[in-house]
Amino acid sequence: MKKVIYFKMILPALLLVLLAPGCRKKFLDTVPDNITSYKDVFTSKKMTEEWLARCYFPIPDMWDQPYKFPWACMSDEVDNTWETPLMNSGAITPDNATPKNWDPFYQAIRLCGVLIHNIDQNDEIRSQPAGEELLKQYRAEARFLRAYYYWLIMKQYGPIPILEDVPPPADADHQIPRSSWDECVAHVLAEMDKASEDVPVEHMNPSNPTVPDPTQIGRITKPVILAVKSQILLYHASPLFNGNTELADFKNLDGKQLFNQTYDANRWKQAADAALAVINTGRYSLYKVADNNPFQAAFLSYRNLFWDGYKVEAIWIRSATNSRQWEQHCAPRNANGEGYSGVSTTQETVDAFRMSNGKKINEENSGYKETGFTTTANNYYVSGTSNMYVGREARFYVNVTFNGAKIPVVAASGQTVVELFRTGNSGRDGSSRNWSTTGYTARKNLHPNTDFRNNRIQARPAMMIRLGEIYLNYVEALNEYDPGNPDILVYLNLIRSRAGLPAMAAGLTQEQMRREIRLERQIELMYEGHRYFDTRRWKVAGTEAYRQYGEFHGMDVYAGTSLSDPAFHKRVVADIRTPWDRKNYFFPAPQADRDRNKQLVQFPGY
After folding, report:
1. E strand or H helix at 576, and its extent?
2. What is residue 36's predicted lDDT score, i.e. its pLDDT?
3. Which GO terms describe its cellular component (predicted)?
4. Residue 550 DSSP class
């Protein structure tokens, strides 16, 4: 088994464990190599702490895109040049559905359960100063992680079987029906509340207990638990899970209904209260960069958030991330060492960004122009760039690489401008497979110093939950429960202000505010794994306004021989996805698991 590097106090650089590819097979083993029983593990401090590190290992890496974390490619955010997700093509079945998270997360649940029910044997830890408290803390961390993995399965698959608290033998004959959605949520929240009793507010430096310990980044704390509860309760209040009569036929074999059929408005209050509890910790702030140019300040604040801003804005962090996977697949081919240029932002997503004056592109006096080319240049694009990309809000230039954009990473010699037209330096003609299908590529979290040829990748953690998301959780829940509450504008405008947009004025109806909040969420959290789930929990994925099916558009990547060639700059169909079907709300349970567990009913439609 690969050596695991330990925390300071527990396992000092958990990030190495979280990333080490050679650990995955061993992680799935019931007992580590050369160990004959759980007693051998849990009477040893070293082995117990190693086991705890393994409990953290399955936490998903949100930037391991587009394959292991493919949610952006399965939403309207991007098209994947190299393969069509089965959810998009309609070819998804219980035998082939990817990403395959059912079994791995259940294995993680069992791993956490083993620690919870065996750690009391560890007299070596108990004999240390504050040893009993340390045992409680380790157990609490595993308890939270076990509940968190249940939550991840629930997001993807809906109501699921909740296993016995004491892990059964690995070869046990599991015949366990799905619990209802409400039962699943109640179980997960109760477990998280119990875990919260024994984890710290922050992990402090043992040599100086007045300051946080930077080596403990990513470990579970009370604010982390509050933040995850905010996510869960927001989903729980949403239309997909709250009085959803469309899914009245989803029942267990005994007729038990798996979704509550009665809408409960109080769930939105619970979601708002949960988000406010995170805000009221007072431990986090929106990251901002000062600059004499307000637009540049907004640009840098949002861009640098992903490698500097986590220090003030992140609530939960994955301590290491495979950012190169994301950066190289998104970067245009004129990057030094070659990007793959194939995480292709859709025209629908491009059109969602406002103008710098805060107006939507189709609003009167927005200043948006569909035709013509600019004769000016700035930090974001060169002269000759299409007017479609001129005067947009700052987050547009962080999120989208377009024809004429300045390259987001270190450029190949003399190629600082991205050309996505057919014969351009990153166009279709230059590669058999590494080219954008839409004439755009994703740009967020691409570091300007990334140099593929010289293998210079800026190490940074991944923000799993940040304060910006919590603000958006709060205003969404408030608008549903208490429309007109002044906090809605207060916290929504904090997000807009950081983005360089003018404050939104009062006077919107609840429905108008709902649309604004959803748009703000789409833009602020782009590519961060939310859009796929948001459009489903709102039950709008099958509507024209939030369409996750049918035709998606881009520029004509089969045309164009110069930067300002009008032949390239025309909207064409870039991808056609399967018509929306009710079954697309959730993934199918794996058929192999249903073959073993006869009580496991399939989601309707599969």
Report:
1. strand 572-577
2. 60
3. cell outer membrane
4. E
Residue type, 354: R
User: What separation in angstroms does the CA of 259 have from each of 184, 251, 343, 568?
Assistant: 11, 8, 36, 48
Amino acid 466 reads: R
Give the global pTM: 0.94
| Neighbouring C-beta atoms of residue 454, cutoff 10 Å | 10
pLDDT (0 to 100) of residue 2: 30
User: Helix or strand or coil: residue 28?
Assistant: helix
**What is the β-pairing status of strands 343-345 and 78-80?**
antiparallel
Positions in the chain whose pLDDT score sits under 50: 1-31
Instruction: Name every residue whose Cβ is closer than 8 Å to that of residue 122 and which is 6 or more positions away in sequence.
Output: 42, 43, 44, 45, 48, 135
Distance CA 450, CA 281 (A): 35
Q: Across the strands, what pairs with 126?
A: none
Instruction: Residue 175: count other Cβ atoms within 10 Å of its Cβ.
Output: 11
Unique residue bearing structure tokens 């939270």: 144
- Cβ neighbours of 89 (radius 10 Å): 12
**Burial of 302 per CB tally in 10 Å (0-12, 13-18, 19+):** buried
Given a contact cutoff of 8 angstroms between Cβ atoms, the answer to whether 58 and 104 are in contact is yes
Task: For residues 315 and 302, give the distance between their C-alpha atoms in angstroms, rounded to a whole number.
Answer: 17
Q: Taking a C-beta distance cutoff of 8 angstroms, is the pair 463, 314 a contact?
A: yes
Is the CB of residue 424 less than 8 Å from the CB of residue 435? no
Three-class secondary structure of residue 180 per DSSP: coil
pLDDT digits (tens, 9 = 90+) for 354-380: 999 999 999 999 999 999 999 999 999
Cβ atoms of 294 and 500 within 8 Å: the answer is yes
CATH class of 1-57+99-195: mainly alpha
DSSP letter string, 70-114: -TTTTSSSEEESS---HHHHT---TTT-SS--HHHHHHHHHHHHH
Write out the two tokens for 447: 């570091």
Which token pair is 231? 């996510």
